[in-house]
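Changelog note: in this version the structure field was regenerated for every chain. One regenerated record is shown below for reference.
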Amino acid sequence: MLQGDYQSVLEATNQEQFRSVVIRFAQLLGFDKVSAMVAVDRVGCDPEFVAIHNTPLAFQNTFDDVTIGRRDPVSQHCRRNTVPIIWGQDTYLRGNAIELWEHQAAYGYRNGIAMALHLPEGRHFLLGVDRDQPLPTDTAELQRLVADLQLFAVHAQDTALRVLVSESSRPELPALTPRELEVLRWTMEGKVTSEISTLLGIGDRTTVFHLQNAMLKLNCNSKHVAVVKALRLGLIQ
């Protein structure tokens, strides 16, 4: 049921498309509220935060208030961890912030699951789903929800960085040569060195040379990881 949403989030080309896919995914998962945020650390100034969500208008100011985020136990967990947090009223009781839960509960934020991916170059992707109803008591069902959220976050992070982050905050793309990109494309198709050499009309040593250069520029220690990273950066299709 959710497989199409994994592909759809990869194909989103702008913020509105991305927002629509994220909201639809949350609803399929059984949550009526969702937020996805990119944070980019910047030297000498405040981090850049960009988010998409379907927060009720009356709760918007609270959602945007960074001072509340510094006290919110869910936000603080995501800031320091990559393990998802399953939260409810007891989370805020333990965090001495029950008044925050009582305020947000009035707008339907009573229970939820949240997680963060902390990426290289000071980039972070946070994804949270929330609802008014209790979470499942069945352990297997709850674990499935967490696993679905994690898998979606892995797919969504690259699109979020692509459509939400300003150009000035994006890392510079590695400058691969046309031949290096060709070698990566054929590697993606499952071709080995000798087959790529034949297809491109070059020697095996030259093929290996281009592949090693591509790996070096992408800061990867294997050709398969290099292919995945090139795909995520949009260098190959």
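Spot check on this record: The radius of gyration is 21 Å. The mean pLDDT is 89.
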